[in-house]
UniProtKB/TrEMBL annotation:
Pfam families assigned: ABC_tran, oligo_HPY
Source organism, top-level taxon: Archaea
Protein name as catalogued: ABC transporter ATP-binding protein
Lineage: Archaea, Methanobacteriati, Methanobacteriota, Stenosarchaea group, Halobacteria
Keyword Transport: yes
InterPro entries in UniProt: AAA+_ATPase, ABC_Ni/Peptide_Import, ABC_transporter-like_ATP-bd, ABC_transporter-like_CS, Oligopep_ABC_C, P-loop_NTPase
GO MF: ATP binding; ATP hydrolysis activity
Main localization (coarse): membrane
Membrane-protein topology: Peripheral membrane protein
Compartment list: Cell membrane
Species name: Halorarum salinum
PROSITE patterns with a match to the protein in the record: ABC_TRANSPORTER_1, ABC_TRANSPORTER_2
GO biological process, one term: peptide transport
Amino acid sequence: MTLLEVNDLSIRYAVEDGSSVHAADGVSFSVEPGETYGLVGESGCGKTTLAKSLVHLLDSNGYIESGEVWLDATLPAWEDGNGDPRPEIIEDESYPVRADGMTNLAALSTEQIRDVRWRDVALIPQSAMNALNPVYRVGDQIVEAILRHEPNTSKREADGRARDLLERVGIEPERADDYAHQFSGGMKQRAVIAMAMACNPDLLIADEPTTALDVIIQDRILEELEKLQEEFGVSILVISHDISVMAEICDRMAVMYGGKVMESGPKEDIFDDTANPYTLGLKNSFPTITEAQQSLVSIPGTPPTLRDPEEGCRFRERCPFVVEECHATHPPMYDVEAAAADGRRLEAGDQRAHRSACYRVDELESIRTDATQEETWTAQEIENR
């Protein structure tokens, strides 16, 4: 059974002049139990906004405009003795609970979502090195999370668990008595990971977990996440602008641009059989150790404004493969394999399939070849189209 289903989620930020910024627009993806799923894209594409919206941690001017966030979890007040939703809860349409036990997080109140955070879903924030309270000992902050969701647990037992968690992520247990300023950047990152695992959640959201760390510490942090996943069976939603991180840790992933998902599917399909011009551009801008004299090619232009964006494909102004249809409406997600096999465009319903939001998904062979040429990505070439 799927652990997380995000269906057609749209998020806005209100601004002072009365307009709004459409930070995420019709985003859909799913995460399976024990899976690592990645959201990748350049800064400002909506990745962090999505992460925060899942657990109601958007800034005060942010709000979910539409869509659903279904999680395989039930609030404690709605559970029977086996941890499943009581029949009367499922049958009552006023409760955001499906017959399969999934709960719509987007429909929960502020108080209700507090029963979900840490217990079912935990977030490692993007600014993890500033996430620890400077006036509380690190161990006490982990203990507080445990006691919030497990009131029958003694403080002594919670303290022991906090020290054990710190040890699991490579921090000496006695450092639980230290303050955040006594930790290095890598230690703070590990401490936040330990805190996130305090209540053994089913889903761990890691927002840029390796940002501001050197490559050695980055590798160790990724190893820690993989070990925790193997030990606890937790699913991980990783958010990053670094596609090399995705290549190392993810099972499936989605590539975002301008608040939209441009391509999604198994990691191997995304990297080996890339099916979207934006993803091809991202790959061109990252070095590889497999090619001795590879020149890096940047995507010309700048990301689109998300304040009432115009109709059409979000990537059209920077895309060297744009056609007239791209200016009319943003393309839906098409099944890449079906388009290649049948020579026609088929919209995909299966979120696990390799999908691409591109009107030329049936012309991938030529597009992939042209995308490797530096001259294809010159601003003048794109403008002439």
